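idk why but the lab printer keeps eating my pages so im just putting this in chat instead. protein + adenosine monophosphate:
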Amino acid sequence: MKVLVAVKRVVDFNVKIRVRSDGSGVDTAGVKMSMNPFDEIAVEEAVRLKETGYVSEIFAVSIGPAQCKDTLRTALAMGADQGIHIETDEDLEPLAIAKILHNMAEKEDPDMFFLGKQAIDDDANQTAQMLAALLNWGQGTFASNIDFVEGGAQVVREIDGGLETIQLNLPCVISTDLRLNEPRYASLPNIMKAKKKPIETIALDDLGLDTAPRLNVLTVEEPVQRKAGQILTSVQDLAEKIKEAV
Ligand code: AMP
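predcted complex ->
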């Protein structure tokens, strides 16, 4: 079984983001970038499935600037077999990403396509759903468990107020939620081995796809700063504060 995993390079989740002074977007100059955390979970799941023998090949796909190769190297160090880098400096919307991944699925013919449930930079939570629609494959989004059963994959989904279990025919698209697994740290020997694993680079223009934006971002703003809290030492003080406030 072959799995494709989409891995996005995003601002590291520990970094406090800064908005550019002209409000045109987030400032990424000199900022630490990492693999989107939900995509780490997707890679980890694919690697675990390979270790248990369900999966034979894992291809990691990343779309973006030259530095996406570092993200792919991380996926290779975690256990993916090959990387595919679709190189572009354009800022692409989820529909454009889904079209590119659709193109990769047609080329590579995987049994499953794993994605994160959302990228922590745009928080769109759209790409997996759009990809499944373009491919006309079943989708198991927000997966917190994946099992293989006769005829396909059984996916437990995290939904409002509980868990939903669905069964999907293969090929299918699965997006990973936080509780699916805890991703491993790549060991030093695996980081060294990853340097020798192949990464294919394809220029976005060579795919001949319409990736033009559909949306116009008008402005990006920082959230309103929360006021500092106060520690009160008695119920009396609390009552006074409430009186002042009303
Ligand atoms: P989003 O719909 O933007 O929240 O992203 C959902 C998922 O789509 C991410 O977790 C990735 O698995 C995948 N994805 C989005 N953008 C990219 C990208 N530029 N390269 C590779 N995968 C991506």
